[in-house]
Write a structure and sequence with these properties.
This protein is mainly α. The chain is built from 7 helices and no strands.
């Protein structure tokens, strides 16, 4: 373990495989999720039950694919001696409270700042992206589980565990390691516009700092999960305002 940040030194032993897990694996698994779902989905009309069923299937496939992604990554990390979560998971309860309190701010504050600089209208997604995929009326239990549980665990272990830890174990300074791992984190969110990727990058910087100062990947996982849950609640309230 690195004495300062408790990052496993084993993560630096195989840098090429670490690059695969951080740069190529996320794109490979996320793209394959959509392709697998497309093979079994029939055309549907917007606003119908068939649309909801299609998105339910899509998010179920995505959960399975993310689980496989995490299982293989975890096996590799444990095999090289870094543990199944690419670092410590034991944590002082005070740090968990910090993660719960700061998590929403790490997403909402950058969103507010960047959004205030953008023209009115939708700026979060690429123009060609089908935003119905994330529309609240198409949410399913599988989507909520993916957003609040699967994504925080898999993404934090990948980027704040493997990426950040591998860089530091290779004697990359903490500032550079935070920037590089956060940039990789932003780039896998290909559904977003460049402006929204800045938000993801800044959130990643916050999660990375939490990882380093707490010495455990559990804190950014919790912060990420609470942040995503908070965003879902706000999106649902915006789409379904009280009468």
């Amino acid at each position: 373990m690195s004495e300062s940040y408790r990052t496993p030194l084993a993560l630096g032993r195989d840098p090429l495989v670490a690059v695969f897990w951080v740069v190529f694996a996320p794109v490979l698994f996320l793209q394959s999720s959509g392709l697998i779902a497309a093979l079994f989905l029939s055309p549907f009309e917007s606003g119908t039950e068939a649309e909801i069923d299609a998105y339910q299937f899509l998010w179920r496939v995505n959960c399975v694919v993310m689980f496989v992604w995490f299982a293989l990554l975890s096996y590799w990390s444990n095999w090289i001696g870094a543990g199944p979560f690419a670092g410590r998971i034991r944590v002082d309860m005070r740090w968990l409270v910090v993660g719960i309190m700061l998590g929403p701010a790490l997403i909402l504050l950058p969103s507010f700042i960047v959004g205030s600089l953008m023209p009115e209208g939708e700026w979060r997604y690429r123009e060609s992206f089908n935003t119905d995929i994330f529309a609240p009326h198409n949410w399913t239990l599988a989507y909520v589980f993916m957003a609040v549980v699967m994504a925080p665990v898999v993404e934090e272990v990948t980027f704040r565990g493997v990426a950040l830890g591998a860089l530091i174990s290779r004697d990359i300074g903490p500032v550079a390691a935070i920037i590089l791992s956060s940039a990789a984190f932003a780039l896998i969110h290909m559904q977003y516009s460049p402006a929204a990727m800045i938000v993801v990058f800044l959130s990643g910087v916050g999660f990375a700092i939490l990882r380093l100062v707490s010495g455990t990947v559990s804190v950014p996982i919790v912060a990420h999960a609470v942040a995503n849950a908070d965003v879902l609640v706000l999106q649902w309230l915006a789409a379904n305002p009280p009468a």
